[in-house]
Amino acid sequence: MHMALARLHGGPLDGQILPLDDIDQETLIVPYSETQIIYRRDGVPTRTGADDGPTEVSFRFVESEDGISPSDD
Q1: Tens digits of per-residue pLDDT, 8-52?
Q2: Closest C-alpha to 22, from 59, 52, 49
Q3: Rounded to 5 degrees, what are φ and ψ at 32?
């Protein structure tokens, strides 16, 4: 089985890369502090060849359950 990674964009986990269980997954719900944050698939998988490393799927920040807003500190 070819490994797949989720690359997160925006929100409190911007830039993070997480293992992706299912390459067809549309939404990621990730625990964060006391709440959960939601990222939604944003585009098609990249690096899908046999010899170019793990497949990557971009996910864009949508919302958090408790309304976390990124700080500008």
Answers
A1: 999 999 999 999 989 999 999 999 989 999 999 999 999 998 888
A2: 59
A3: -150, 115
Q: Got the DSSP string for 16-56? A: -EEE-S-TT--EEEEEETTEEEEEEE-S--B--STTS-SEE
Dist CA 23 CA 10 (whole Å)? 20
**Cα 49 from Cα 8, distance rounded (Å):** 21
Nearest to 44 by CA among 29, 59, 32, 62: 59
Tell me the domain boundaries of the chain: 23-66
